[in-house]
Amino acid sequence: MKILVVNSGSSSLKVSVFDLAGQAVETFKATYERFENGACAYRLSAGGTRESGQAPLADIAAALAALPAVLERHGAGRPEAIGHRLVHGGERFRETIVLDAGTVAAIETLTPLAPLHNPANLLGVRVAQQVWPDIPQVAVFDTAFHATNPAWATTYAVPKAWREAGFRRYGFHGTSHRQVAFRAAAEIGQPLAGLKIVTLHLGNGASACAVSNGVSVDTSMGLTPLEGLVMGTRGGDVDPGLFGFLSRQLGLDVAEVERQLYHESGLKALAGSSDMRAVEAKAAEGDADARLALEVFAYRARKYVGAYAAAMGGLDLLVFTGGIGENSASMRRRICEGLEFMDLSLDHDRNDSVDLAEHPAPQIQSFGSQVRVVVTAAAEEEMIARETAALLAPRHEAPPVSIPVAVSARHVHLSRAAVDALFGPGYQLTPALPLRQPGQWSSQERVTIEGPKGRLERVAILGPERARTQVEISRTDCFTVGIDAPVRESGQLDGTPSVTLVGPAGRFETDGLIVAARHIHTNPQDAARLGLTDGTMVDVRIGDEERGLVFGKTLIRVSPKFVTEMHIDTDEANAADIRVNGEGSIVPGLTAAIAG
Asked: What's the CATH code, domain 2-141?
């Protein structure tokens, strides 16, 4: 499938064409900028040739209108679909959508959330719809990947009326963060679902993202792309009291303060240039302002890495991308310095010799570093093309395959030490009811889970014994016991909260308290039939037409020991109106497209 990707900005237009017949191949790329006096500067590459110069195009609309002839002249041909980058999807648009009159109008209502970005993006949409009225067009939102951020990460502590008006944290650069997390996980040969990753997209715009078990759980940008890291012309985190201060001290109104926060801050304000290469050159010559700018930039990024490692309960992988992240070895070194306490250290030779032309995601950590460090090129346009193709792909090739769904109520898996403490030394649990998964059973015995605020009585014990005690409860149960348990894959227990178990013979305090991530057990034969791969995520539709729901980010676990079955907890079952068990079907989505 041939996809045209359009990124229409406020003062520039970037377009790419991808052929997705096999591996994604970028067959055409062009940038149009510096529109003035009826002309613009352009750069393009196609078929191994490069071209640049001035074109008689007065604005972005004119450049888009001329694009069909340009594509034809360079052998790129006519696209089969068009994918647009949209910066802000608000709370409504949490996934890729087809653009029509209704969705365009709905996106336009989000303009107050991104007044400098969405209008420019929508201009590209409207012109493209005029130029190619018969070609399907799709919106891919920067904010969509961060829709999984929990409420405590997205909520500002401000008056309720503000929050009801839409004042919350959304996050941006989501397409980039998602793509580089997938690529880095593939590079180190581990499933994304089992990793804690911090991705740093460092360029003229910069942001950090915490990716836990394949989903975004926090990100540095907020309501707008102003919050977070230091950027080329944006200062990142500032005290919101600056509006009152600048009004009183300098007589600046809100519009002028906002303009300077977007266009006159960041590296430009600190060192006189928004280009990191120029700042590093000035610093090397001894410029004190430039040196301070580098330290501020690195410190802010390093602080977010540490904060997100704390939020996720650890860190497995740090990923650098974006123009600065990919090209500045000295900035990567500055950011990583001081993170040795996390068992993260760079190999300076590997860091200095990064070559992304030869290695799509080289590792640059030193030998023995427990945290891996990867550098990879941002490929937002390719991800937009893949998401566009995945959304438009025909869905009728095969009927949905039914998957049994079982409701997993609160329960515990006990170690030998826990059994001895709760029931007496040498005690053997009594199997009472076999479970669907071979060799697993529910015992006759029960325990109590005790937390600082309450107790859960007669909690089931599942056998056989395990090497480490694991306690699985629902989010509602968390409120009862007074402990905020993390959502984790079974067995991923490091850094989990402690809780007290009470049995007839005594008490046992243990960590391992989790809210189990919803998952599908399957065996290699069924996995091949269903097109599933261990460690990937899928969306599953569960329940009837009236009350059914789609459960996203469902983890696939493949083993010859498993019988195919999806497990959800009682909160999820209640939401889908399922009492004991039910059926679900996998929703075709992006995971397969990325893997392909």
From this structure: 3.30.420.40
Write down the pLDDT at residue 397. Answer: 46
**3-class SS letters over 205-242:** CEEEEEEECCEEEEECCCCCCCCCCCCCCCCCCCCCCH
Cis peptide preceding 79, ω within 30 of 0: no
Q: pLDDT (tens digit, 9 = 90+) per residue, 544-572?
A: 656 668 887 788 888 888 989 999 898 88
Active-site residue flag, 352: no
* pLDDT above 80 for 359: no
Q: Using CB atoms within 10 A of its CB, is residue 256 exposed (0-12), middle (13-18) or buried (19+)?
A: middle
Give mean pLDDT, residues 514-537.
86
Report, as an integer, the average pLDDT of 87-109. Answer: 92
Identify whether the C-beta of residue 5 lies closer than 8 Å to the C-beta of residue 83: yes
* CA atoms within a 13 Å half-sphere pointing along the CA-CB vector of 451: 19
CATH class, domain 518-595, is mainly beta
Query: What is the pLDDT at residue 554?
Result: 87
- Give CA–CA dist 125/9, Å, rounded: 11
| All structural domains of the chain with their residue ranges | 2-141, 176-381, 409-516, 518-595
With beta carbons less than 8 A apart as the criterion, state whether 196 and 317 touch: yes
Helices 288-312 and 276-284, axial angle in degrees (round to 10): 120
Q: Which of 142, 218, 477, 569 is catalytic?
A: 142
> Phi first, then psi: what are they for 592, rounded to 5°?
-65, -35
CB 26 within 8 A of CB 18: yes
Question: For residues 331 and 347, what is the distance between their CA atoms, to the nearest angstrom?
Answer: 14
Provide the token pair at 433: 């009811």
